[in-house]
Amino acid sequence: MNKMTPQIRFQGFTDDWEERKLGELASFSKGNGYTKNDLVEFGDPIILYGRLYTKYETVIEKVDTFVNKKDKSIISEGSEVIVPASGESSEDISRASVVGKSGIILGGDLNIIKPVNYIDSIFLALTISNGSQQKEMSKRAQGKSVVHLHNSDLKQVNILYPKLEEQQKIGSFFKQLDNTIALHQRMLDLLKEQKKGFLQKMFPKNGAKVPELRFSGFDDDWEERKLGDLGSVAMNKRIFKEQTSDVGDIPFYKIGTFGGTPDAFISRDIFEEYKSKYQYPEVGDILISASGSIGRTVVYQGYDEYFQDSNIVWLKHDQQLDNSFLKQFYSIVKWQGLEGSTIKRLYNKNILETKITLPSPEEQAQLGTFFKQLDDTIALHQRKLDLLKEQKKGFLQTMFAK
Fold first, then answer.
1. CATH code reported for the domain at 1-14+165-217+360-402
2. Between the CA of residue 390 and those of 86, 100, 126, 141, 352, what are the distances in Å?
3. Tell me: domain 223-358, CATH 3.90.220.20, correct?
4. Residue 1, Cα to own-chain centre: how many angstroms?
5. How far is CA 279 from the centre of its chain?
6. Are strands 39-40 and 232-234 parallel, antiparallel or unpaired?
7. Mean pLDDT (10-residue bins), the chain, 402 residues
8. Element spanning 105, H or E
9. pTM here?
10. Regarding the domain delimited by 18-161, which CATH topology (the fold level of the hierarchy) does it fall under?
């Protein structure tokens, strides 16, 4: 490997990559007119520059935004590379997509690049968005609150490229990888929608005594109770800042790292003392975030870890509730009486006064098992999707010359 070749290549390609200014490899133009205010429900398909931020794709083949076509509109011929001409940051603006179809209107604030016949459009979009060119473009972006990137800036960007056949191999590889990622994303979205539908149908709503959909063998009315009738709010004993460190034996989860990666730790001595003297969750307890992004849940798995008092709490209910059932209730509950103006807080009284509609313990258990299996399936698909995205990130880092 040297500067003019990537770390990983397809078999049979050994030549050095060439370097030239983008202005020597393409012709340039701009999109014309149109803003979000011009969008209509039905009409002519259009790509606005914001799509490259909100719904980025290497190749755009399906468009779900429409306008009433105006005179002097810029219409795609297919295979154009588009780069936003403005954005919120220099990093965000350094991205490119290929317009995969002809007949699509290209809105204002889009730089349009039409590469010469020995530069593959998908390869060009990929290297602009991920190669060393991205950093170069970021440096050329101008502005403070809104940054701008003009065609004149793009023309000065240095492009490293191999022969057309290798470009096409690279472009095809990433297009197939993107299609696989998109397929897994659709499957994950479908599972989440299915779960949402089941939650709506398998829990009573609008004061009903029974849900719309039930397992066979259950026909009794559900009973409305307050959480405070079934248990009490528990939390860990307070840990003060001076008791924590950046490294240590026991992870200490604050509200900002709850459900993620801890950035503070406590000693094992403090952990063992506090765990033996004061309240501590049991395996299976559903921990709840009680401030900031309220209602996030984590199932305690029995690891040695500690949680910030009052911000991370759980309901101690002495097995009066099935925890898997309770977890699903937490995902749909509308907490009452939340306090605070800018930062909301869920106080103990809010939790204890919250009403829950309960079936028999047997039906709770069956519902809990059903949703746990569904959650496990969703988590499995999420891990697969995350792995694919990480693999793509790794390939992008190693398949382009720097």
1. 1.10.287.1120
2. 28, 25, 16, 28, 42
3. yes
4. 34
5. 35
6. unpaired
7. 79 93 96 91 94 90 94 94 83 83 94 96 92 68 70 90 96 95 96 97 92 95 95 96 94 95 96 97 95 91 96 93 95 77 80 94 96 96 97 93 78
8. strand 105-106
9. 0.82
10. Adenine-n6-DNA-methyltransferase TaqI; Chain A, domain 2 (3.90.220)
